[in-house]
Amino acid sequence: MGSKASEQRNRVVTALERVRHQIGLVLGSAAGARQAAEAELAKLELEQHIVRVGMNNSTSEQHAEWSRHPAATEVFTLLGNVRGQFYSGWEAGPNALRDLVTNNAPGPAGQQPGNWLGRVGGNPGITAPGLWRVGSATVPGKDVPRSFDVAIPLLDESHLSITSAPKTRAAVDGIVQNLLMRVLSTFEPGAVRVHLWDVGQLTAILPDLYPLSRTSALKLYDPGRLEDLLDELAGHIRRIHATGMQAGHTSLREIRQASGQRVEPFRVAVLYGNGETLEPERARELKRVATGALAAGICLIMIDVPTTLSTSVETLSLLDDRRAISSMTGTDLVVDLDPPMPSGQVIRAAGRIAEALIAKQGGPRSFADLLPTELGKESSARELRAPVGFFEGEAVEVVIGDASPHVLIGGPSGSGKTNFLYSLLGSFAARYSPDELALYLLDFKEGVSFAGLAPGRRDASWLPHAKLIGVNVNTDREFGLALLRYLADELRRRSAAAKQHEVTNLADLREQDPGGHWPRIVAVIDEFQYLFAGRDGVTATATQLLEDIARRGRSQGIHLVLASQDVAGIEAFWGKPAVFEQCTLRIAMPKARRVLSETNNAAVSAPKWHAVINHDSGVAHGNQLAHVPDASSKDVFVKLQHRLWERYSDSFKRPRLFDGAHSPVLEQFPAFNDLKPTKKPRALLGQSIDVDEAACGVELPKAPGRNVAVLGAATAEALSIMDSAARSLARQHHDDSVEFVLSCPIEACLSAVTDLAERLRTEGHRVSLEDDLPARVIDIAEKLSSLDTPKILLLYGVDASIPALEVKAPGQVKSGLDQLRVLLKQGPAHGVHTIGWWRSIARLKDTLGFAGTDDIGSWAALDVQGNELSPFAAGQVVHWSPRPGRALFFDRTTHGAPEVIIPFQRPEGLLDG
Q: Which residues of the sequence carry a binding annotation for ATP (predicted)?
């Protein structure tokens, strides 16, 4: 197909050159002979009269007078030969031109205006006519004048430059409008897009074509911003060139011929100037665009735009409103321009084309239209590619790979950002299996955008590609940090594997290690700016990790999708260019600011339910507008999720769901259910804020300092920590192998402590609920070295017990408080561990006495400020601001720094055993 098309084009070009050459020879020889004759006749008065009057117009009396002149025979012979040469040379010229236009300007391209006007063309746009009619020309003949059609090349062949004459604006509009209607009527709807710019007018540019403005077939540009049009055209040229280069083609025409598909529409850009020279920068941009435009299927029609282009340009210079000189016919022939097509017919024709284009697009597209016919057939080795929306019925794709490794999404509340994320995730998940794509989804705002992708009470299905889903984490910045740590660890693992196999990217690693599991990882962080919300260790560490992943993640198939609903999300990147610049794929929802480049205002005018997709770091030439279908309404995404779940759920685990709005339940926690009797029991205090569903706990071996303090006046959280610690320890001891000693002087908490005591008894453990704590403490301390049963002291509100502990019983050297200090210091080595709740740091210090901080090896702080905790954290600065439902946990034997945990949900009342 390609060779035939190339041969046909060569024949057209050869024919054009031959005709031009023929015209030049004929006109040149005629002019030369005439000049020679005039030079000779100038010597003679007779010859001057002959030239002035003309042979055909002379009277018989003049002929009689001239014939008596001595040089009459020579002069008459000379003039006869000139006329004979001229007319004999033109005998074949008009016929050849007629045949040329007929063959290369079929249908509306070359016919006189008629019933084709307004018909919807059927040419799919794979090939284009070589010539387009603009008028006719006439040359004299021996008997009658000879006329022929004048047509010019456009689209793939040539640009057109029109120079007007005074008071010819209407004529120029007629020429342009005629050409555009011929082009639009030749091709099927959607195959041609027209761009209009007029330096002198905001509106009313070719007003008869305005019915097309409600479609993408016609676009207007601000008269003061020629750069917007040039940037957009430059973007199309770059994109088409990149696509062609990948396929080994040098032009859009070659791509069409090789694929047998239109691929891209033809574009006709009409530029109305005012005869003044463009600004130097705009002139340079126009020359650059014009040079690469034809190969990209872009044709420029320039009116009164003085410029010199180093590419194929035909010219049409108007003499008046009816006549012009064309570069196709030379300066010696005048072209009689076709009259403008009737305004009413053009308006109706444009309306019919617009209706056909809207009908072809099939109305609003649905989420189902984004999905492939077969699920999970694509490979992610090189990149991830999937449509997220539609423009004029054509799918608009998002590509995540080496060229566009990370994504920045911006859109204010209500702009459709969440809906876009669902379209993106669904389109990817439908094309790539969970072996090819792993998703980590995190939503910092208060909501449950991604909760439906995990199994729930109403719907047991989940998205098999999702490995982690975090929702309601707006107050848990630590969970975002945990995700970044996990990604950094995975990056190191993949880099080590790549080094071992001597490769540098994911595609080569998968090829060299086919047995390995190397899916592409996409981490979506909605409202990511919360990671940088404080001036603390979380912000510093998150910044460092994010920059490292952004720089090195592309080569190992780890990609970030960072989304924000306001400008704060973008400002969070100020001072962090290593992250911002790596997000070369920018997606702007309507009214989004600063997501695209500063001079790119496409999102401001984007309609609702649309998005501006830009793979070129937000520069305007990379804009692609896409209508994003509804993907987030009830049952829309769910249908796809059910299909994927039924297909993959047997082979892939359910995702880990972290919901910051709900406290974990101890009985449902894997770490609790896996507990078994052991010699090194571990008290579980809460859930770790981590990628893995892990519990934070304290091992209680027979070693100094292995006591636990719960600090703060937050009663609910303190009771929860004490409860989970006791029940987890009970699960690790055989019946009657340990004694739980409980004491609670706080009347409001006595019911909860009684419930716990009954639960432990129901499970078969020895439990004593003490009314006289000082006596029991003294008894245990005095028998410490001879105890036969380990003991767990669960002391509630120790600070409330201090007055009683300070009283010395008759005959006692040490008070109950002194003996409690002995138990804290020496008890762990003898199997006696204390888990106590102090409602203030000062009371804990009073309890421990001088240099007693080492006796508390681990603690969980609640509503206590970080600066109060430094003495119990090896003197380091502790960054902690209390928040409901959270505790700060530190174990000096395992922690380098404290970590935030979530206390387990305490059960209400005694449960059946």
A: 411-418
